[in-house]
Design goal:
By secondary structure, the protein is α+β, with helices and mostly antiparallel strands. The chain has 2 domains: about 70 residues, no CATH class; about 70 residues, no CATH class. It has 7 helices and 4 strands. A 4-stranded antiparallel beta sheet has the order 1-2-3-4, with helices on one face. β2 and β3 form a beta hairpin. The protein is elongated and about 75 Å long.
Length: about 140
């Protein structure tokens, strides 16, 4: 597969169009640029060898393509802590409690402007407060949490 993908950039325009028709199943649009066609064909080759999108993602894209998707309804609501919420976070074996108020937060009897300010007090480094307290998902788990 790697050799086949690498060889795409060496193909002339007509051969690229033939490969497009063979892999995609239709003639490419006349305005498609060479670099786009090479990238799209490389993707298709990888897709065939390694698998494509998950079915749920494909269904969503199909609905969007058909104009049937209401993107506003598909959005995932943000996780927020309302006033009165108590957030508990364990950090390096110690449990920390923060109470959320309307415009600030309370930690150890003292008011702070934000969760980030509290996270900085706890860890000694800059942290996103919502991330530290689990209100925002991490792309990668912190190693020392």
């Amino acid at each position: 597969m790697a050799r086949e993908i690498a060889s795409l950039s060496a193909l002339d325009a007509e051969t690229l169009r033939q490969r497009w028709k063979a892999l995609i199943g239709a003639d490419p649009a006349p305005y498609l640029g060479r670099s786009f066609m090479v990238r799209a064909l490389a993707y298709r080759l990888q897709e065939r060898a390694l698998g494509g999108l998950k079915p749920a993602a494909q269904r969503l894209l199909d609905r969007i393509g058909d104009g049937r998707a209401e993107l506003v309804e598909e959005r995932i609501p943000k996780r927020r802590a309302s006033a009165g919420t108590v957030l508990i976070r364990e950090w390096r074996g110690v449990s920390y409690r923060v109470t959320v108020l309307d415009n600030d937060v309370v930690y150890r009897g003292r008011r702070y402007k934000s969760l980030s300010e509290v996270a900085r007090v706890i860890t000694g480094t800059h942290w996103s407060g919502p991330l530290f307290f689990g209100l925002k998902r991490r792309s990668k788990e912190a190693a020392n949490g």
